[in-house]
Amino acid sequence: MVENKKLKGSTTPKIDGGKTKSIKSDDVKKIGMSTSRAKKIKHSYKVKDPENAILLKLKDGDVVIEMFEDAAPNHVKRIKELVRQGFYNGLKFHRVIDGFMAQTGCPYGTGTGGSGQKLKAEFNRNPHKRGTVSMARSSWPDSADSQFFICFADCPWLDGQYTVWGEVTSGMEYVDMIKKGNGANGEVSSPDEIVSMTVISDL
User: Fold this and answer.
1) Which of 37, 101, 144, 169 could potentially form a cystine with 137 if both were Cys, beta carbons 3.0 to 4.6 Å apart?
2) pLDDT, mean of each 10-residue run, the chain (203 residues)
C-alpha cells in the first residue's frame, strides 16, 4: 500500500498518459452480449441520462459511470466514440496504486499508447474524490487521449489539473477489487482487464 505521505505530501503523484500511439479500430477486441441480458442490465440501473452513462464490466462485477457532459463535453463525446468502437474492451489496468487510483485505456497495456487523438484540456470544478473518473495525461495539459483513471480515495491535489469526466455511481466495491500493482510507479504484474464498456443507452 502506498504510504500516506505519498498521498498527502508535497510531491504530487503523476498521472501520466505517456506518449500517444494510435491503434486501428479493426485491431480492437470486441465482446458481445446477449439481447436478453442487455435489456435486463439496462433496466436494472437508475441513471440520470442513459446516453451519458457507461456500464463498465469488470471481472468481479458491473460498474456504472455517469458522465459529466456539461463539465467536459469534448472528453465525454470522445469517450463515447471509443466505447462504441469497442476500443476499451480487453484493455489492462496497467497502473494501480492502492489508496490512490487505477489507470487503464492504453491499447498496449504499458501506459505508452492511446487512440491517436489528443484532447484539449477541460479542467473543471469537479473534485477528485473516491469514485471520480478522470483523464490521464503527460506534463502537457492538452495531451489526454484514451487513458483514464478511477480514484480509490479523495485526491484533492489533482483538482484542476486533470479533466474529470465522470463518477462511479454503482459498483465501486468492484473497482476496489482491481488487482493492485507492486512494481515501480504502480506497475501491475498480470493485470486485470476491462471485460467490456458500453454506453447504457445502447443496451
Assistant:
1) 144
2) 40 58 50 58 79 98 98 98 98 98 98 97 98 98 98 98 98 98 91 98 94
> Which CATH number characterizes residue 49's domain?
2.40.100.10
- Nearest residue to 24 (alpha-carbon basis) of 79, 82, 111: 82
pLDDT at 175: 98
Residue 7 lies in a domain: no
- Domains identified in the chain, total number: 1
What is the identity of the amino acid at 170?
Answer: S
What residues does 102 pair with on adjacent strands? 96, 150
Domain that holds residue 198: 13-202
- Residues 136 and 148: their CA atoms lie apart, in Å, by 5
